[in-house]
Amino acid sequence: QQQVKQSPQSLIVQKGGISIINCAYENTAFDYFPWYQQFPGKGPALLIAIRPDVSEKKEGRFTISFNKSAKQFSLHIMDSQPGDSATYFCAASMYTSGSRLTFGEGTQLTVNP
Amino acid sequence: GAVVSQHPSRVICKSGTSVKIECRSLDFQATTMFWYRQFPKQSLMLMATSNEGSKATYEQGVEKDKFLINHASLTLSTLTVTSAHPEDSSFYICSAIITETQYFGPGTRLLVL
Questions:
Q1: How many CB atoms lie within 10 A of CB B106?
Q2: How many angstroms separate the CA atoms of A5 and A23, rounded?
Q3: Read out DSSP for B43-90?
Q4: Could you tell me the sign of the dihedral formed by the alpha carbons of A47, A52, A57, A61, in that order?
Q5: pLDDT digit string (tens) for B78-103?
Q6: B104: which chain A residues are within 8 Å (Cβ-Cβ)?
Q7: What is the pLDDT of residues A70-89, one digit of tens each?
Q8: Which residue from B1, B49, B105 is facing A100, i.e. has the nearest CB?
Q9: DSSP helix/strand/coil, A82
Q10: Sign of the CA dihedral A40, B87, B17, B77?
């Protein structure tokens, strides 16, 4: 019940295209859903996060769509650039459990020039 | 965003020795920090939660006598890998939390020969 399932495992997109990564969770007590971007040999960097009381959040080229009833959320990267090539992790946490993050398995995104 | 540093960025040690990794929150105070381990092309695995002024909480399966955690101040947590063996070679990443958001350090690459 603590799992977060992420798909696809890898994704190849052309420059200028839209990258879409999906996550699904089971625990309805999760109340915070961040996305992290990780480059090889570096720590994850927070991209964008959402709470379940909103259905969408946009920051620049990055958008989270959240479907509470389906227990799913997704990251959309508009106008994908080669510099976006990285591994993306979705995660979920509960404030009442000390905000410990449960991570998805990760998606390796490659944006071809 | 908040800045978290780690030192060293990479370390090579001989089997049987101990290695200490430092995690610092540079521009904020963190009563709670987290330690993760990451294997190549895998997600982050939470090892323990480090609480300032109290004992760390370890995840199931993590040997607390092998991975010693000390959180002596509001800006510093340390992870000591005791009697390191080649199987302890990994990428260790810490994070510090503000409200519900975790900010990650750049990671420490440990290689045990």
A1: 17
A2: 5
A3: -EEEEEEEETTS--EEPTT--TTTEEEEEEETTEEEEEE-S--GGG-E
A4: positive
A5: 999 999 999 999 999 999 998 888 99
A6: 36, 43-46
A7: 999 999 999 999 999 999 99
A8: B49
A9: helix
A10: positive
